[in-house]
Amino acid sequence: MFSTTCHPQTDGQTEVVNRTLGTLLRALIKKHLKSWEDCLPHLEFAYNHAIHSASKYSPFQIVYGFNPLSPLDLMPLPLSERSSVDGQKKAEMVKQIHEKARQNLEDKTKLYEKKANKGRRKMIFEVGDQVWVHLRKERFPEERKSKLMPRVDGPFMITRRINDNAYQVDLQGKYIVSSSFNVSDLSPFIADEADLRTNPFQEGGDDMNMAKDTELEPERVPELEPEDAAAIPSGPMTRARTRKLKETINSLLTHLENRAGERDDYQTSLDLIQAA
């Protein structure tokens, strides 16, 4: 079977069987880890005897047409004691079981596909497109030694479209790995995204470059007259607005103190004139 490197989802059937066998082995051997080989025949019979949820049949039923109660039911009879059966009738029965099992598997596959693609956006690339390549840890161990190392590389060019889920990429001799990638490890490269860092695989931002290219100027706030100092400025209270408002309040307090001093001097002069 052909599948992309480090993408076990491609051969999902084998992965499910391996997971099930691992669970059965752990239940049988428990702490006797060296006895797992002795348990394999019993484990194999138990797995083939169980009815699978997808096909609605056990592997024994699909192959032999019946589900044996014990391994002895599968042993061939001696030639002298072999009974005659209607071979054509049994062949038709097994054929019907195969058709029903195939239909059950197709229905189950469609159900799984519908659930898996519910929130997934289909991505199609063409030959010549520029893409980012996700540096999967299992496939690029040297490039993922540190958490701070880049998790994508590119851009690289699509050289061949195998199908809608697999593509060949020109790695330019940079990596000694297979050039075939699953579509989940690729993302489109946009020419002007180098500074914006909009690539979904790339983490972090490029604040330093943005700071160099664009210097933020403090917001200009119109000066308030002392009579209008009590008015609350519209808009969000930024640092510049807060600093300007503080200066305006201090200026207003100074203005009020000066007017109070002038009023006291005027009252003192008036008292002296009346006393004279």
Automatic annotation (TrEMBL):
The keyword Coiled coil applies. Keywords: Coiled coil. Pfam families: SH3_Tf2-1. Residues 88-122 form a coiled coil. This is Integrase catalytic domain-containing protein. PROSITE patterns: INTEGRASE. Transmembrane segments: none annotated. InterPro entries: Integrase_cat-core, RNaseH-like_sf, RNaseH_sf, SH3_Tf2-1, SuperAg_toxin_C. The keyword Coiled coil applies. Residues 1-67 form the Integrase catalytic domain. It comes from Cardamine amara subsp. amara. It comes from the Eukaryota.
